[in-house]
Each structure stands twice: as structure tokens, then as C-alpha cells.
Amino acid sequence: xxxxxxxxxxxxxxxxxxxxxxxxxxxxxxxxxxxxxxxxxxxxxxxxxxxxxxxxxxxxxxxxxxxxxxxxxxxxxxxxxxxxxxxxxxxxxxxxxxxxxxxx
Length: 104
Known about the structure:
Blueprint: H1 3-11, H2 15-25, H3 32-55, H4 61-84, H5 94-100
Helix pairs in contact: 1-3, 2-3, 3-4, 3-5
């Protein structure tokens, strides 16, 4: 893993736009470390929006708070892994994100 690959992985965790930018930055050289974290970040952001749409119908601050806390913890876990240069799957959903976004 080199510095450019690590930087791309870190950028991928800064909002959905950062994930898309990192995707384009990784297009030429296809670093495996960066690709791993791009898949994790895309999975976190897209599942957040998809599941969050349905969570909004509960109209309960406790359910919404738990939902936001859960996704914040997933995001922190992935971001710290990118900072430390590790390829640890995020809990519960990481393996599925690697399968779903395998072409990234």
C-alpha cells in the first residue's frame, strides 16, 4: 500500500461525493486497498440513504437516533481502518458491500 492509495481510501469516506471522487481517482491505477475502502464507503452511504428513507416513516426520535448512531459508528470504523492502513470489513454489512460493488 502506498501513500496515494491510502489518500484515496481516506477521501472515499467524506460524504457520497468523496466516494465518487475517490472512485474516479482510483480508475487509472486500481489500487486494491483504495478499492476495498471505496466499496465500504459506497455501501455505508447508499445503505444509509436507502434504509433512512424507511426509518423516516417511524416518526420517533429514539429510532432515528439509534439509526444515526449505528451508521456513525460504521463510518468511524471504516474511516479509522483507512487511516491505519487496514482492510477490516465493517461489522454486519462489510462482506455484502464487497460482493455488491465487486466491479469497483
